[in-house]
Each structure stands twice: as C-alpha cells, then as structure tokens.
C-alpha cells in the first residue's frame, strides 16, 4: 500500500514537473513570437552589432547600416579562420560599407562572449547606443546576456525571422535547444 502511494506521488510530481516545463516552453515561444524591434528609423543609434550564426543576420545588419542607422557595425562571433574580405565577397552591393564601417570579432564563441566583446567594443569606441541584430528565437537570451554587461538605456534589438525553408521538426529542435540555453542563462543569473 505504501509503495503504491509512493509510486502515485512520484507520478504526480513528474507529471506536474513536465506540465511546468511545457508551460514555460510555451511562454518562451510567446516571447520569441512577440519580440519586436524596439527602435524606429528616427532613433539615434551610433552602432550596430550582428551576432553571426544563422544566415540572413549579416544581410539584415548590412541592410540596416545602409539605411543610415548606425555608423559602425560589428560582426560578432565570426570564425577565427574567416577574414572580413571573405564576408565582403558575399555581399558585393555593400562594398563601400565594408571598407569604412564594418569590423569583426573573432574572439566570441557563444552569446555570453558576444555580449562581453560587444561591451568592450562599445567602450573602446565610446558609443552611446547600439542595435543588436540576431535571430528571433535567439533574442530572449540575447537580451538577458547583453543587459548583464551593457548598462545603457540606449540598447535596441532587431530580431531576424527564422528561416522558413527548414522543416518543422528542425524548427522545434532549434527552438527547444535555444529554450534550454535560455533557461541555463536565466538560472545562472538568478543563482
């Protein structure tokens, strides 16, 4: 009788735990879906940072820079074996911007390091505002990491929508992996 009671309690606790995780994952998905750019074309922004990783991020950053928003752009998290000239070849219509206004960070290997290197770059160049460009599913964690280092009121975010060409299963895997990273980051801050 006692063993059956313990088994029932264990099942109830596990079920509640799974419901809690699933509920929080749904909350995370709503954050991703509802994360909007918090700047306008008239917002005075003097720097841009693109977190590399998914395709379309660099293209979106270059598009924003070419529209006159931000004076300099940092590509953060570029593989140490890739040179700026290689990236420049991928975006020939922005050659003039690459020549004057784009720098790369080959140090960062993860979002925490992206935020640290961005902080150092902003401080070194005395920038007063920054627009962070990354994938939409990445933004909740980006916001946590960047606000850990960057204590400025003029920090803005621009989410790039997830690639629609990937399968639903790959999207769910990508979102769940990001959720796990988000939770790890969140817990590391509150503990």
TrEMBL record:
The keyword ATP-binding does not apply. Residues 47-160 form the DUF218 domain. InterPro entries: DUF218, Rossmann-like_a/b/a_fold. The keyword Transmembrane helix applies. The chain crosses the membrane at residues 12-30. Keywords: Membrane, Transmembrane, Transmembrane helix. CDD domains: YdcF-like (cd06259). This is DUF218 domain-containing protein. It comes from marine metagenome.
